[in-house]
């Protein structure tokens, strides 16, 4: 699409009762980010109340018509996704504005590949709009959904706001409350004061204003308004769970009774059957959890029922999928078949193909596969043939057990489900998934190529172009995504892989390049973006030395003296491990002074270059750890060692550091709303 153009959703797909809108961008440094927001507007171009403003502190509508799904890793970075159930949007809402904002002086002109895409309930991509040359704006309306009679249409907007989130929200009628007077916010009090570059009209319908309607007269504005508690754009403080209550058991050998026992599981068939039944039953009984799992797959909000061991006709032999999910909304049914694998067992293409054919014949919407493996962009876990000639298309989705555990952990520890009994159900589900005997451990095997590649690197016999190196790179990417899920679930924060490639780069070509680099250097490396951390967390696995290195680079403060910086850094790291390596980064040189924290504590001045004129650009903090030798997740395995290294580095080092100056602290541009 081009700026200002519009299109009817029903002209693109018959399956648009719900839709997924994705906002994406990339950053040359891998650190650029923004926040998405959604506003529901009435006929006057205003929100009905502050509750119509959805953002990170208010991510889900009460009727589930809007749900911010968070960031989803892609092959070249990440994108923010929003689920819309258009059948549940109240009749008085005529427009839905989809926007994003940056913070603390950051501008969209610093990001690349700004785009918005829209997919139907089956996951089929329907449209794409790329914003060229965003300029020095801190908020952008990417697009809007609006009613035209009985159908929904999408307009590509691309309108920028110099006044940021506060100005955008104010112009659409959201009540702003600032602790300090902000000139930018005051300027935004005038109609469209922050708007920059409104789109031209392309069709008669496109003449509808993308900018907000004029403000009411002063008399009306002066009238007192009765409002409930206002939403806050400042990040909610996460309260960690308190210590568990004192156990009444006589000794440690007593085991608490569980709703979902694991002691009776004897083989893989038992594990698959139990895991499927446990998960689907909790999804039906905890609506917020069930919605969190199914919304990314295009399921509408509504009454959910789940089933196991259902027999469906297929030729001469009936098929029995592991489970079925059905959601009813306004008399219509959304149905997905579920195929489950546990204990590292791979999915079988013929099984999934049969379920795809059954779903297509019966008019079902999706097939969901669930296993320990992690799907990668451009690298499907199973190959299936989709008949594009069929009028009814079936979407194939994959879910990892690690993702299921992550969503349960986020709701239990950080977001809540609003009901003690439902919380208890989720806790028992999470305990079951994390038990050694459940088989639901997530990605736990680096593959058959791991040992030959390690030996080849050690013997210097591994050649570029060896397909086994590509297998190891793919396994490494799966492992990193799982590490992000586990760390994010513990912290209640977004943790995502950061990749320094432009959006649109072929994932296969990128992995082939990394495989050649592995053969040449013998090293696997990844960067993690942790929300609130002072920089990217880097994890490097050197297969030649069998060492893991976790590190983070801290930029030097803009003011003050180098000796003050060094002393303050050492004080902040008072509880960090003594073997932490601290290195001074200097301008124009490969490295500056360095040493262990144990040696630097009595003499922080040793971090300063001998040449006082050399400019310090920052500090690098690193921990080293032995690398597991096995390909699995056992105590001595490589997967366990990587997970432990990242967890130890974050909890013992990163938590003691200051958040970045350009971070997500509440500032003038992130006012109290």
Annotate the secondary structure layout.
Layout: E1 6-8, E2 18-26, E3 35-41, E4 53-54, E5 66-74, E6 77-85, E7 95-101, E8 112-120, E9 125-130, E10 139-148, E11 151-161, H1 164-171, H2 183-187, E12 195-196, H3 218-222, H4 268-285, H5 287-294, E13 303-308, E14 323-329, E15 332-340, H6 349-362, E16 366-371, E17 395-400, H7 401-415, H8 420-434, H9 450-459, H10 467-491, E18 495-498, H11 507-521, E19 523-530, E20 537-542, E21 547-555, H12 562-572, E22 581-586, E23 594-596, H13 597-600, E24 616-626, H14 638-652
Parallel strand pairs: 15-16, 16-17
Antiparallel strand pairs: 1-11, 2-6, 2-8, 3-4, 3-7, 5-6, 7-10, 8-9, 10-11, 11-12, 13-14, 14-15, 18-19, 19-20, 20-21, 21-24, 22-23, 22-24
Helix pairs in contact: 4-5, 4-8, 7-8, 7-10, 10-11
What would you say this structure looks like, in words?
The chain is of the alpha+beta class and 673 residues long. 25% of the residues lie in helices and 25% in strands. It has 14 helices and 24 strands. The strands form four sheets. Strands 1, 3, 4, 7, 10, 11 and 12 form a seven-stranded antiparallel beta sheet that branches. It has a seven-stranded antiparallel beta sheet with strand order 18-19-20-21-24-22-23. The chain is globular, with a radius of gyration of 26 Å. The protein starts with 5 loop residues before the first strand and ends in a 21-residue tail after the last helix. The relative contact order is 0.11. Residues 178-228 and 662-673 have low confidence and may be disordered.
């Amino acid at each position: 699409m081009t700026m200002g153009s519009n299109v009817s959703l029903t002209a693109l797909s018959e399956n648009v009762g719900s839709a997924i809108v994705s906002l994406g961008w990339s950053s040359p440094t891998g650190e650029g980010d923004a926040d998405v927001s959604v506003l529901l507007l009435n006929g006057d171009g205003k929100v009905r109340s502050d509750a119509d403003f959805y953002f990170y502190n208010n991510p889900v509508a009460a009727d589930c018509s809007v749900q911010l799904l968070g960031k989803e890793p892609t092959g070249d970075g990440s994108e923010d996704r929003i689920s819309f159930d258009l059948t549940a949007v109240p009749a008085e809402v005529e427009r839905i504005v989809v926007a994003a904002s940056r913070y603390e002086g950051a501008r969209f002109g610093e990001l690349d590949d700004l785009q918005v895409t829209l997919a139907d309930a089956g996951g089929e991509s329907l449209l794409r709009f790329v914003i060229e040359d965003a300029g020095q704006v801190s908020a952008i309306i990417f697009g809007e959904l609006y009613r035209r009679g009985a159908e929904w249409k999408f307009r590509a907007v691309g309108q920028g706001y110099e006044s940021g989130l506060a100005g955008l929200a104010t112009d659409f009628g959201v009540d702003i409350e600032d602790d300090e007077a902000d000139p930018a916010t005051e300027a935004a009090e005038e109609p469209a004061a922050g708007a920059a570059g409104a789109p031209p009209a392309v069709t008669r319908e496109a003449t509808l204003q993308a900018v907000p309607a004029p403000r009411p007269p002063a008399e009306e504005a002066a009238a007192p308004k009765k409002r409930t508690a206002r939403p806050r754009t400042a990040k909610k403080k996460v309260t960690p769970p308190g210590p568990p209550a004192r156990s009444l058991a006589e000794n440690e050998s007593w085991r608490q009774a569980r709703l979902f026992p694991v002691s009776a599981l004897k083989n893989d068939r038992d594990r698959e059957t139990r895991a499927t039944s446990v998960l689907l039953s909790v999804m039906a009984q905890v609506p917020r959890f069930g919605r969190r799992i199914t919304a990314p797959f295009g399921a509408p909000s509504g009454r959910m029922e789940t089933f196991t061991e259902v027999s469906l006709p297929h030729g001469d032999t009936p098929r029995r999928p592991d489970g079925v999910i059905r959601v009813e909304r306004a008399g219509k049914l959304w149905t997905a078949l579920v195929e489950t694998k546990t204990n590292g067992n791979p999915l079988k293409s013929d099984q999934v193909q049969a379920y795809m054919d059954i779903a297509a014949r019966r008019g079902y919407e999706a097939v969901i596969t669930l296993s320990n493996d992690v799907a990668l962009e451009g690298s499907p876990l199973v190959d299936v043939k989709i008949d594009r000639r069929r009028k009814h298309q079936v979407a194939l989705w994959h879910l990892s057990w690690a993702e299921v555990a992550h969503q349960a952990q986020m709701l239990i520890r950080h977001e809540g489900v609003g009901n003690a009994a439902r919380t208890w159900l989720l806790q028992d589900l999470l305990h079951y998934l994390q038990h050694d005997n459940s088989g639901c451990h997530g990605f736990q095997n680096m593959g058959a190529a791991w040992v030959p590649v390690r030996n080849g690197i050690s013997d210097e016999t591994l050649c570029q172009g060896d397909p086994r190196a590509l297998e190891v790179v793919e396994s490494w990417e799966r492992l990193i995504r799982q590490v992000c899920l586990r760390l994010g679930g513990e912290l209640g924060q977004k943790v995502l892989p950061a990749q320094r490639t432009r959006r649109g780069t072929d994932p296969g070509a990128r992995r082939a390049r990394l495989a050649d680099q592995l053969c040449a250097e013998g090293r696997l490396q990844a960067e993690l973006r942790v929300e609130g951390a002072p920089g990217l967390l880097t994890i490097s696995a050197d297969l030649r030395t069998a060492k893991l290195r976790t590190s983070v680079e801290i930029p030097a403060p803009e003011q003050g003296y180098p000796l003050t910086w060094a002393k303050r850094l050492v004080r902040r790291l008072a509880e960090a491990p003594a073997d932490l390596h601290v290195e001074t980064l200097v301008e124009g040189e490969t490295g500056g002074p360095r040493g262990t924290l144990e040696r630097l504590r009595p003499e922080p001045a040793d971090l300063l270059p001998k040449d006082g004129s050399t400019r310090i650009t920052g500090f690098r903090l690193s921990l080293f750890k032995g690398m597991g030798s096995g390909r699995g997740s056992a105590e001595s395995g490589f997967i366990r060692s990587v997970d432990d290294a990242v967890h130890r580095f974050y909890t013992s080092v990163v938590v003691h550091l200051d958040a970045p100056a350009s971070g997500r602290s509440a500032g003038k541009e992130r006012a109290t709303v």
